[in-house]
């Protein structure tokens, strides 16, 4: 069953206390293959912005957390989830609804594996890791940096729970020796979660030539208007400047 987005604490509490723990509480005898559709990323305005990803990661262990960068990828995730028996939340890109995508002829046959990142741009100088709408900004930065002789490898995490089960990001880091995690959540949120997984759990620190970095949203709700939204979240200039600093080091 697929249900629409939850709203506030009224939806989060049963997802966290009941749904995420059901399999554990019943020693595997009960399951609830519920898929929750939600949307987020790059929203604008006080009441529509600010990423709750750290809250989701902290409270929904026991669910799959899928973060597609576009709607075709989201369709592949839904197809995968509908074949399983586990609960999940799929956080679609709100600003992705306005993008024109090429419709695959085999849309019903697409499958996106859970826990397996995707390399969406190959490069040799630095690894950039993110998910959702932010990837499009990193791609734009990478295209501009290519003119300066900087080759950025971009990895889409695709799912945060589970996260990179085959250590693909580590393999990229072994090649580039530099890594940047980008996310519009607050500092210490989803970017820190990805950082912890790669640096500590996968021992990625052994392959670093420079200190790893995170770029996040600011530690407050975004300011009013398009300018407030732009400068309170990871943006093109900030990503380019950070990558150039890391290359110079």
Strand content: 15-25%
Provide mean pLDDT, rounded. Answer: 91
Tell me the overall shape: globular
Structural class: alpha/beta
CATH architecture of the largest domain: 3-Layer(aba) Sandwich
Helix content: 25-40%
Low-pLDDT stretches are none
Strands side by side in the biggest sheet: 1-2-4-3-8
What is the domain tally?
2
Total helices: the number is 9
Rounded radius of gyration (Å): 18 Å
CATH topology (level 3) name of the largest domain? Rossmann fold
CA-CA gap between termini: 50 Å
Work out the number of β strands: 10
- What about the largest sheet? 5 strands, mixed
Helices and strands, in order, run as: EHHEHEHEEEHEEHEHEHH
CATH class of the largest domain: Alpha Beta
Describe this structure in words.
The chain has 249 residues and is α/β, with parallel strands linked by helices. Helix content is 36%, strand content 16%. The chain is built from nine helices and ten strands. It has helices at 8-19, 22-25, 53-59, 71-82, 134-146, 168-176, 190-201, 225-231, 236-248, and strands at 2-3, 35-40, 64-66, 88-93, 118-121, 126-130, 152-156, 159-161, 179-182, 213-215. The strands form two sheets. Strands 1-2-4-3-8 form a five-stranded mixed beta sheet, covered by helices on one side. A five-stranded mixed beta sheet has the order 5-7-6-9-10, with helices on both faces. Helix 5 (134-146) crosses helix 9. The mean pLDDT is 91.
Tags for this model:
five-stranded mixed beta sheet; Rossmann fold; 249 residues; 2 domains; 9 helices; alpha/beta; 10 strands; single chain
Summarize the structure.
This protein has nine helices and ten strands. With 249 residues, the protein is of the alpha/beta class. It folds into two domains: 2-109, Thiamin diphosphate (ThDP)-binding fold, Pyr/PP domains (Rossmann fold, 3-Layer(aba) Sandwich), CATH 3.40.50; 118-248, Rossmann fold, CATH 3.40.50.920.
